C-alpha cells in the first residue's frame, strides 16, 4: 500500500515549552502506526532537535523542517540550508507552502532548486501545490496545479521523483475552515496523479503519496482520507491541539 501520512505544520506557533508538551501529549497516546503509516511534525527550526529526539524512539514518527533555502550555502543571513538539515538528521522538508509562495515570493523555479537540494541531502520534500480562489472560481485549477508540478518537479529523474510527497492545498481552504469536498479532493488528486503518470508512468505515479491540506479537522479527516487518491493530510490549525491531531493520525487508511 502507498504510504499514508499525517503531517503537522505548526507554522509560527507554540513556544518551545508548548511544543514539547504538544508532542508529549500526542506521543503519549501511543498510537501504533502500521508499516505504511507515518506521522510527521513540521516544526520551527529552533525546535527541530527537540522534536527529533522526541520522535526518535517511535516507529514511523518523523520530524520535518517547514522550509529550506534555495541556495547551497553562503551569505544568506538568517537562512537554513538543506545540508544543515541533513547534518541534524532531519529527513523531511516542506517545500513551497502557499504562505511562503505568497509572503516570501517563492517561485516555481526557486522551488525546483529547493527540491534538488533536498534530494542531494537525502531529504524527502513534501512539495505543496494548490490554487487560489480566483483560479478555482474560473475552473482552471487543473492547469494551475499541473504547471506547479511541471515547473518544480518534472526536471527530476523518475528514481528521485518517486520518493517525493506531494501536498495538494487549495489556498482558499487553508486556515479558513472551508474544506474541499471529498469529491473536489478526489477529483484533483486523481488528476495530479494522472499528470505524474503522463510524465513518469503509472508505476511511479502510484507510489507517490498525495496529501490533502486545507482545514483538515478531527471530524472530517476520516472522510477525506477515505478517498482513493488522498493519502493523508498536511494539517495546520488542528495539529496544534493534541486531541485533534491524535484523531487525525488515527484516521489514516
Ligand atoms: C497548512 O498549514 O498547510 C494548512 C492546511 O493549514 P490548516 O489546516 O489550518 O488549513
Structure description:
- This protein is an alpha/beta fold and 253 residues long.
- The chain has a single domain, classed as TIM Barrel (Alpha-Beta Barrel).
- The chain has 12 helices and 8 strands.
- An 8-stranded parallel beta barrel has the order 1-2-3-4-5-6-7-8, surrounded by 5 helices.
- Helix 1 (16-28) packs across helix 12 (242-250).
- The longest helix has 19 residues, at 182-200.
- It is globular, with a radius of gyration of 17 Å.
- The mean pLDDT is 97.
- Bound molecules: phosphoenolpyruvate.
Can I get a quick summary?
With 253 residues, the protein is an alpha/beta fold. 43% of the residues lie in helices and 16% in strands.
List keywords for this structure.
single chain; 253 residues; alpha/beta; TIM Barrel; eight-stranded parallel barrel; 12 helices; 16% strand; globular; binds phosphoenolpyruvate
